TrEMBL record:
InterPro entries: THDP-binding, Transketo_C/PFOR_II, Transketolase-like_Pyr-bd, Transketolase_C. It comes from the Bacteria. The keyword Oxidoreductase applies. GO terms for molecular function: oxidoreductase activity. The keyword Ligase does not apply. Its cofactor is thiamine diphosphate. It holds the Pfam family Transket_pyr. Residues 2-174 form the Transketolase-like pyrimidine-binding domain. This is Pyruvate dehydrogenase E1 component beta subunit. Keywords: Oxidoreductase, Pyruvate, Thiamine pyrophosphate.
Length: 320
């Protein structure tokens, strides 16, 4: 079986072997193999192309931007998504705007180990996708399956725009597949993971699996829940979302990020502005609590949406 983490490592291995312009750059990613061992063995296989970086996210992204300007295709690893804020200026003010300002492409990939895990706490558990999606010029990917982790990372390397690749670290070793895909879904295209007729759940990343578990629970009550995996949050596949809501008449958006603004708010805004007449009830959203992410595993499991919480929210929505 292939884990989500194996898929990410395999994609980088293939990208390095396929294109001599690709190199990896990040803290302790060389002989140590990275904080989560995503680059394990790659430094030995590709000497001089898997490089340890200084303890400065600002410098890491800045060097990657410079290399991209000179024709390289760097893949940057942040040890945790939270730490990317130390390189925020480079990402949103330089990488994101480079082509607009100069017509020079900036094909960098910034890998963000995202989301929470038991005991992670407030500095190692945040979901940053909504923050980066705010800025023009960035592509923001949020793969929720082993297959997408592999194929979307390979696609990210080929894109001429800077890509924020939000890989969920709780999925690293919890999610498995029998094989890697030979065919891929186009970037920017959502996928209907489960078809239904009563209510639509729009979600992404680790919340796909919590939502599917909730859909299983409601099926016992006779409800058919349609689950849409956005896959990328920028660009956002509004057409697939609207088509789903047209079938069901009800919408619940689920994300692990904080509730203020963000991806769920954007989805609901688009549905209400472009498909208000499709709705039979007010659209709802379920997010993490509006507090820093707690350390204690029990508090953490109450802080983020779970299958039970999603099932409860769906029942309330179906009664409207």
């Amino acid at each position: 079986m292939i884990t989500y983490l194996d898929a990410i490592r395999s994609a980088m291995d293939e990208a390095l072997g396929r294109d001599p312009r690709v190199f990896l750059y990040g803290q302790d990613i060389g002989s140590f193999g990275g904080a989560f061992k995503a680059t394990k063995g790659l430094a030995k296989k590709y000497p001089g192309r898997v490089m340890d970086a200084p303890l400065s996210e600002d410098a890491i992204v800045g060097i990657a931007i410079g290399a991209a300007i000179e024709g390289m295709r760097p893949i940057v690893e942040m040890q945790f998504a939270d730490f990317s804020t130390c390189g925020f200026n480079q990402i949103v003010n330089h990488a994101a705007t480079l082509f607009y300002r100069t017509e020079v492409s900036c094909p960098i990939v910034v890998r963000l180990p995202s989301g929470g895990s038991p005991g992670g706490g407030p500095f190692h558990s945040q979901s940053m996708e909504g923050l980066y999606a705010q800025y023009p010029g960035l592509v923001v990917m949020t793969p929720g399956t082993v297959e997408d982790a592999y194929s979307m990372l390979l696609d990210a390397v080929t894109i001429d725009d800077p890509v924020i690749f939000c890989e969920h670290k709780f999925l690293y070793n919890h999610l498995r597949a029998e094989e890697l895909p030979k065919e891929t879904t186009p970037i920017g295209k959502a996928r209907i993971v489960r078809h239904g007729r009563d209510v639509t759940v729009v979600t992404y990343s680790a919340m796909v699996h919590e939502s599917l578990a909730a859909a299983d629970e409601l099926r016992e009550d006779g409800y058919q829940v349609e689950v849409v995996d956005l896959r990328t949050v920028k660009p956002l596949d509004t057409d697939t979302v609207l088509a789903s809501v047209a079938r069901t008449g009800r919408l619940l958006c689920v994300s692990e990020s904080f509730p203020w603004g963000g991806v769920s708010a954007e989805v609901i805004a688009r549905v209400t502005s472009e498909g208000f007449g499709l709705l039979d009830a007010p659209p709802q959203r379920l997010s993490a609590k509006d507090t820093p992410v707690p350390y204690h595993p029990n508090l953490w499991s109450s802080h983020r949406p779970t299958a039970n919480a999603i099932a409860s929210a769906l029942r309330r929505l179906l009664e409207m």
